[in-house]
Write a structure and sequence with these properties.
single chain; mainly alpha; 4 helices; 0% strand; 90 residues
Length: 90
């Protein structure tokens, strides 16, 4: 990798990184991060329009705990089951 940085030649850097296991892709984290970004945006816009923001921030805090520790594992398992099922069919 240092050779690529020193020379400024980026051709083959991706292949070298993959061969050295420098990239560790965790599908479930990327999947949840995508969904969380969407939901956070929706909540943020909705809370910003409310008069009693402090109350809704408390509601969001508990929703976040439920989403992280209850809903996320369930959604991940369902996604895992369906993605494996459709991969086997195709």
């Amino acid at each position: 990798m240092l050779r690529h940085l020193d020379s400024g030649e980026w051709e083959g850097l991706k292949t070298a990184l993959i061969q050295q296991n420098a990239v560790n892709w965790k599908y479930h984290l990327a999947f949840m991060e995508t969904k969380a970004a969407i939901m956070f945006g929706l909540w943020a816009r909705w809370i910003s329009t409310r008069k009693k923001r402090q109350v809704w921030l408390v509601v969001f805090k508990y929703y976040l705990l439920l989403a992280l520790f209850l809903f996320a594992p369930i959604v991940f398992v369902i996604d895992l089951l369906f993605s494996n099922l459709f991969c086997q069919i195709m």
